[in-house]
Amino acid sequence: MSGTLVLVRHGQSEWNKLNLFTGWKDPDLTEQGVAEAIEAGRILGERGMKFDIAFTSELTRAQKTCQHILDGVGQSDLKTIRNEAINERNYGDLAGLNKDDARAKWGEEQVHIWRRSYDTPPPGEDGESLRDTGARVWPYYLTDILPHVLRGNTVLVAAHGNSLRALVMVLDGLGKDEVTSLNLGTGIPMIYELKADSTVASKEVLGDMSGAH
Known about the structure:
This protein is of the alpha/beta class. It has one domain: Phosphoglycerate mutase-like (Rossmann fold, 3-Layer(aba) Sandwich). The protein is 40% helix and 15% strand. It has a six-stranded mixed beta sheet with strand order 3-2-4-1-5-6. Helix 2 packs parallel to helix 3. The chain is globular. The two termini are 33 Å apart.
């Protein structure tokens, strides 16, 4: 056995609440989102979880989620590294648009492809597919996050639905078709115990992902 990796998608953001494509835009957490982050910290704290280092993105909603979790486990001052490599995927021209309005304009099927397909980016030169997102998440994970876990440490990563989907895809060995139906709930910790060869020994989800979007 090696170390522990805890992944948490940020709590509900203002734009999640408004059903808007968010991407690299930087809305804050809602009251519900704050409560979700605090609850994640409470649950992890009750389990006696202590972290050696934390990673988060360059976006406010993930950073605040990370801090609420660390507060909840009594580690408010823990070293936390921020990097845009684990930012949400860039939604290009869709960012800021209401998802229902986008469906009305381009059709349900096209919007679903943009949201969930593995390798079709949304419109706009900055738009990223899940594969594009993974192309920055995976190297960062291998060079900056994983080494801490392999040293036997317990590592927190508070990030985003799609940056974490890209990571879970690799950890869980999901194929391109399987990952399209993968949904991660806001503020729900996923605890991975990794072996010394970096493969997964066990996975535990501390919450209900059934209503995730």
